[in-house]
Write a structure and sequence with these properties.
Layout (H helix, E strand, L loop, with lengths): L1 H42 L4 H11 L7 H24 L6 H21 L2 H13 L7 H9 L3 H9 L2
Helix pairs in contact: 1-6, 2-3, 3-4
Protein name: TerB family tellurite resistance protein
């Protein structure tokens, strides 16, 4: 009986730590996404077409049908203007309202993107993104991680909306 009580007590102590760790992970992911957007904006060479082409290059591990490309062309092109607008509304690191709007827009785009993919493509997509998880000095991995969501990240952001 004492072991059970001890295990219960330890699990109750660790649960808040686990929840905090998950929240910190989300906070890190938000900072990464805002930071990469800042880097893209600072280049001043990005426009709708450049953004669309960059998305296709980063997703070169997927083969898209012509019908998918039509939808994605529109999604990638139109999302740049709205991302830029929402990013420009962010006044600082403590501007939770505008950061939340920005992140919610990214999640909305991710939802649309995922609906375009077949089940097989979604599996490949998630497997490739998982390879980019964790800390890295590789610029491509950082940008891919900031632009797209693994299943776990996507579900976590949806849950915390």
């Amino acid at each position: 009986m004492k072991k059970t009580t001890l295990i219960l007590f330890i699990s109750l102590l660790l649960t808040p730590i686990y929840v905090i760790a998950q929240k910190l992970n989300i906070e890190d992911e938000i900072k990464l996404r805002v930071g990469v957007m800042e880097m893209i904006v600072e280049r001043k060479k990005t426009n709708e077409n450049v953004f669309k082409d960059a998305n296709y290059k980063m997703l070169n591990f997927l083969s898209f049908s012509e019908n998918q490309k039509k939808v994605l062309d529109t999604l990638f092109s139109k999302s740049w203007s709205k991302r830029l607008e929402l990013y420009n509304n962010i006044k600082g690191a403590d501007d939770k309202k505008n950061i939340t709007e920005f992140i919610n827009y990214l999640v909305k785009n991710e939802t649309i993107f995922r609906k375009v993919l077949t089940k097989e493509q979604l599996t490949i997509y998630n497997d490739e993104l998982k390879k980019n998880e964790g800390k890295s000095d590789d610029a491509r991995k950082i940008i891919v991680r900031a632009m797209y969501f693994t299943d776990d990240q996507y579900n976590e952001f949806i849950k915390n909306k």
